[in-house]
Amino acid sequence: MSGVSKHFDEYCLAFGLITGMGIDLANKILDVIPSERDFFNLPQRDLEVIAGRRHKMLDAGYRASVLENARRELDLISKKGIKYHYFRDSDFPNRLIHAHDAPILLFSVGDCNLNASKIVSVVGTRHATHYGVDATNNLIDELSALFPDIIIVSGLAYGIDIAAHNAAIRNNIPTIGVLAHGLDVIYPAAHRSIASKMARGNGMLITEYPLNTKMHKSSFLARNRIVAALADCTVVVESATQGGALVTAALADSYNRDVLAFPGRASDEFSTGCNNLIKRNKANIITSAIDIVNVMQWDTHDRNRTIEPKLPIFNEYTPRERRVIDFLTEAGASHINLLAAHMELRVHEMTALLIDMEFKGYLHALPGGKYSL
Questions:
Q1: Which residues share a beta bridge with 110?
Q2: Which of 21, 45, 116, 283 could form a disulfide with 259 if both were Cys (CB 3.0 to 4.6 A apart)?
Q3: Model's pTM, two decimal places?
């Protein structure tokens, strides 16, 4: 359906702000009520007759309060340059419409085609290892080479999520970060600069939550359904036996989306979840972008083209190297002085260790005395 009239913006926004309003329920209501405006203007008794029952959302006082909140929200987002996407608008992600529990309203900053031809979600543990970060980087390097217009979706969390966003930015392809709170904050705060790059470049930050929404643990699990439903397939890079990445994988499967998982050593804690997905036939095994191409049956410009997988080998790090890698995985880029303080080493000792690790290909030197994986 083409975009709704601007005259009805506040009513559509208010309709989307009703607690518990999802796509299935919204469609049922709008099948019998002519418009969102009518929903807010009809007498309570008329709505109860149409619905065949009483419900809190039909209460005249509740509807009036939601409409007033929507007017305030519309004023705020207009001033902050935040867009909203309503499920009857042409720019609403069509993949999301087919998820029964999807929200009918999304807020966003940035510029990204939510209905692009190829979208991949990449998820994994917050405690990503060097293996996982390398696997993520290599995968997105390969995908961007095959499909320069592909979009990468993740949740802006520590570990695999932020590695996926960073890899997309480095390859100059769009990336979408799905947030579990309003767009007036960025969590974790350490990822503000990455979020800014996404919003100001050709990426996007998106959420179902209005401004000034308090963060809640359940919201982070709820946002996983959007991560899963926005994409054609979900790739799990690393996961322990439990975690949000496995929830996302299960949701993707429930939406009839393909799930792929990177294998790992049986002894590695953060490969257990992926190995179990593969073992139980809940995910296709993946070692390179070509596996996604084959599973999704996507055409490439050159059907005979092959990509040599660049999966890292299982390195045996020294205890000091492992501590540096774990620190950089959590913190991202860090200055040598901070690393030295963390490692309780003198700066010249830290310099020697970093040079050796750089030579081995474990990390990269950045301008200004900083290092990153």
A1: 204
A2: 283
A3: 0.78
